[in-house]
Structure formats: C-alpha cells, structure tokens
C-alpha cells in the first residue's frame, strides 16, 4: 500500500514539475511572439536600415535605435568596470581571507543591497552622486552615464559577490593545499590557483551582473539625464532602451508607429540579453571542460 502511494506521489510531482517547466516555456514563447509580432508591424512602416543606422530617436520624425544602443552600452560597460573587480575581489576576501566574525557581518550587509528599491538608489543618484560628480568634473549637472554606471554597479554587486563567492568556495581544498605545499603564500594561491579554477562560476557571476545592468529601468531613468542623443563619453547625458520604454509607453497612442517602435526596441534588448546569456554559458562550459 505504501509503495502504491509513493508511486502516485512521484507521478504527481513529476507531472507538477513538468507542467511548471512547460508553463515557463509557454510564457517565454508568448513574450517572444508578442514582441516580434509588433516589431514586424513597425518595420512595415520604417525601413530596418534607417532604424539601425540613423542618428536620432525622435518619435515624431525619426526612429533610430542607435543612440539608445550606444547609451545602454556606455552605462552597462561602466557598471561592469566598477562592479566586476570590486565584486570578485570582495568575494575572494570573504571566502579566503576574512575572519569568520567579519564574514558574519559583511555577507548580510552585501546581500541586503539587493533589497534596496531601485527608486531609492535612483534618488540617491539625483541628490548625492550626481552633485558630487558635477563638482568633481566641473560640469553643470551629474545626471550622466557615469552616474548611472555607479548606481548600477552598486545594484549588481550583491549578485556578483554571492555567485563569485560560491564559485570560489567550490574550488577543492586540495588545490589550495597543493599550492601552499609548493611554497606559495595565500595571495599567490588566491590569484594563481583559486581564482583561475573558479573562472566558470566567475563568468556566470559577471553575466548575471551584466543582465542586471541591461534590464534595470527606474535607476537609469532617474539618474542619467534622458538625452536621446549619441553620447561621446561617460560625462554625457544618455537614455537607455529600458528608460525609453518606461518614459514613452504610458503616453504613446495605441497602435501607432511610435507604439510599435517601443516593441521593436524591446525585442532588440531581448535579443541582446539572450546573446549575453548564451555567450556566458558557452564560455563557462568550455572552461568547465578545461578544468575537469
């Protein structure tokens, strides 16, 4: 009797997990179809060449994603230049060097950064980081790509630190012991043995952090100046793809060219995020095979 009940429970659980997996795939497929169906309606009115090579995003006359792509690139690049080394080194220190009492204090603090609302971080960018950047660089206001990069780096840190620490902890102790036995000190072991062995997990951490930066909306909407022009550097005001969708979707007339253009840029962002994830998974798998 017990065996029959267990088999029934196993069957129900398998059905539930399978249903959840199929539901997730169906939802993703629905999102994919909605984005690209509306994008096709947009490209019936606007030539794709103009969309990708133009220099202006002006919904009344010109629909070019190029300024938005460049702006998104600057903000994401800046955030990764700050968050990746800081996050990996913080994870390495917590995992390998920090006393246990300090770990107990620092780990919850870093993880709590993820709980701060993006609106609150954007507000800090307006009242604190922006004026500071304006004073340091002698510019009129600090609502620019650098401001957004700093804020997104803070938001990406919990993800990068947590996953990087797990990757470093997953390196077998025998690797460290062998290095120390050969005469290397802790720092040499960390940089020449532990971190290289943890590369697959570190790449996953970087890719998830990059995905966080690419998909963030409210913070960049508040802190980057929202100038839909091609930026020349980090001190220029920018408008990312996500900020453009958030600003314009609430006011755009339904089923107009402008309306469909927002689906088109959302589809491009979807493809970029998908490419980033697949690239990270590809290199992570290659590194796993190399270390196995």
Which short descriptors sum up this protein?
2 strands; 292 residues; 12 helices; MetI-like fold; globular; mainly alpha
Describe what this molecule looks like in 3D:
The protein is mostly helical and 292 residues long. Helix content is 77%, strand content 1%. The protein is built from twelve helices and two strands. The chain has helices at 2-43, 48-53, 66-97, 100-112, 118-137, 145-169, 173-181, 186-197, 199-215, 218-223, 241-248, 257-291, and strands at 57-58, 62-63. It has a two-stranded antiparallel sheet. Helix 9 (199-215) runs antiparallel to helix 12. The longest helix is centred in the first third of the chain and has 42 residues, at 2-43.
